[in-house]
TrEMBL record:
InterPro entries: FAD-depend_C, FAD/NAD-bd_sf. It comes from Tenuifilum thalassicum. This is NAD(P)/FAD-dependent oxidoreductase. Pfam families: FAD-depend_C. The lineage of its organism: Bacteria, Pseudomonadati, Bacteroidota, Bacteroidia, Bacteroidales. It comes from the Bacteria. Residues 212-370 form the FAD-dependent protein C-terminal domain.
């Protein structure tokens, strides 16, 4: 069978790992000009891997398979160097957070680091390139996918027996194009996470960082919104992410180069109801409004006390931002965010301060916007010829889950189980 794989990211890596050296002819289309410039966001942004049944996606992935792919990525580093942590393995910490109303999320973390990721990606690509049945096509942006009785047509020209779309959340334009043709693919489309990137000195959370590396908790705020932490980066750096027509904030950490600060996201989860059906549009609007206030390509930076008091920040004090000054403006997030989101985040931080004193210090830093989009949850049972894997399918939200999703799809293809609900 001749198979087109659109996008080369975590999900495609899992798919190719199972399909390599089989009788299937596999063609991988990647819009980046080469492997060095490819944007595999979850992998390239930080390289944080985890094993957990409590987060990472909407499907169940066996923990043994998760650990197998953690080891897979680590084995492609040059020196097998990795930072580890075990979130809430300690009963003492679990009870401490639980007593204050938090829901601790248990998981095992493995951090490769941004500075090792280029070699990991190249080494994986190099291995696949040696498989006779896998063919890479860089600088090819797939804008059109059409299913016919005879097969799947890519960009109105190339014909394949099957197309597996693995473009991640950044490939929403292609996904929207396919959905416009086949609206029956959508299972649901209601969620978006809005929030901030929070930065504070290492010494406030040193004990927690040493114990877990990354702590993940959820909290039902007094507004009714569920608020969660995401992507904790000990001794890390705040960065911006460019989505083309708007800019958001994110964070990462390196294996060898360290800062004096820790940063993590605090996100309020919105589940929107009918007749609303465009959570990505809503989140994008908030991001664009924030950018309008900050200036093109910039985000807003504010101290926590001013964030609480709805005052514009004009000066910083003890905490020095790790984000380059050309990428932010001192301002007031309250001018861009809905008040209910602001109140939910404040409630979360104040309650977290009862567990970790110093988290609510006045001069800690608030960056905005940080937004996590959920792709439409797509139904892989609709078509035998057109499949979706990884984050673009709405089934996963992490490197390991996306990789495993691709692998499981390849298993279904090899067994000719095209109606599998993966």
């Amino acid at each position: 069978m001749k198979i087109a794989v659109i996008g080369f990211g975590a999900a495609a890596i899992g798919l190719l790992e199972k399909l390599k050296d089989t009788e299937h002819e596999v063609h991988v289309f990647e819009k980046s000009k080469d492997i060095y410039s490819s944007s595999i966001s979850g992998i390239r942004a930080d390289g944080k891997l985890f094993v957990s049944t409590e987060m990472g996606g909407e499907i169940y992935i066996d923990p043994h398979l998760q650990k197998r792919f953690v080891d897979y990525y680590i084995n492609f580093t040059d020196n097998k160097e990795v930072e580890t942590g075990n979130s809430f393995a300690s009963e003492v910490y679990y009870k401490k957070f639980y007593e204050k109303g938090f829901l601790p999320i248990t998981s095992q973390f493995y951090h490769i680091g941004t500075d090792q990721l280029k070699e990991v990606l190249y080494n994986i690509y190099d291995q696949f390139s040696k498989s006779k049945n896998i063919h890479f096509h860089f600088s090819v942006e797939v804008a059109e996918v059409n299913e016919t009785a005879q097969g799947v047509i890519i960009n109105g020209d190339d014909k394949f027996d099957m197309a597996v779309i693995a473009v991640g959340r950044s490939g929403h334009k292609l996904i929207n194009s396919v959905i416009n043709q086949y609206p029956q693919l959508i299972r649901n489309n209601t969620k978006v996470d809005l929030g901030i990137r929070y930065e504070l000195p290492n010494h406030i959370v040193d004990e927690l960082n040493r114990e877990m590396y990354e702590f993940k908790v959820k909290y039902k705020s007094r507004t009714g919104y569920m608020v969660r932490t995401f992507c904790n980066n000990p001794s890390g750096y705040v960065v911006t992410e460019n989505y083309g027509d708007f800019t958001t904030v994110n964070g990462h950490a390196k294996m060898r180069e360290k800062s004096n600060n820790t940063n993590f996201a605090i996100l309020a989860s919105l589940v929107l109801t009918e007749p609303f059906n465009d959570p990505i549009g809503y989140g994008s609007y908030i991001a664009k409004l924030s950018n309008l206030l900050a200036g093109e390509g910039k985000v807003i930076l504010q101290t926590y006390s001013h964030f609480k008091e709805s005052k514009r920040t004009k000066n910083l004090y003890r905490v020095h931002p790790t984000l380059d000054s050309k990428n932010f403006i001192l301002g007031d997030v309250n001018l861009a965010f809905p008040r209910r989101i602001i109140e939910s985040i404040i409630d979360f931080i104040e309650n977290l301060n009862t567990v970790i004193p110093g988290v609510a210090n006045n001069d800690n830093l608030v960056y905005a916007p940080e937004i996590k989009f959920y792709s439409n949850r797509l139904n892989n049972r609709i078509s035998d010829r057109l499949k979706f894997i990884g984050d673009c399918s709405g089934a996963t939200r992490s490197i390991i889950y996306a990789t495993a999703h691709g692998y499981l799809m390849a298993e279904a293809i090899l067994s000719a189980n095209y109606n599998s609900d993966i």
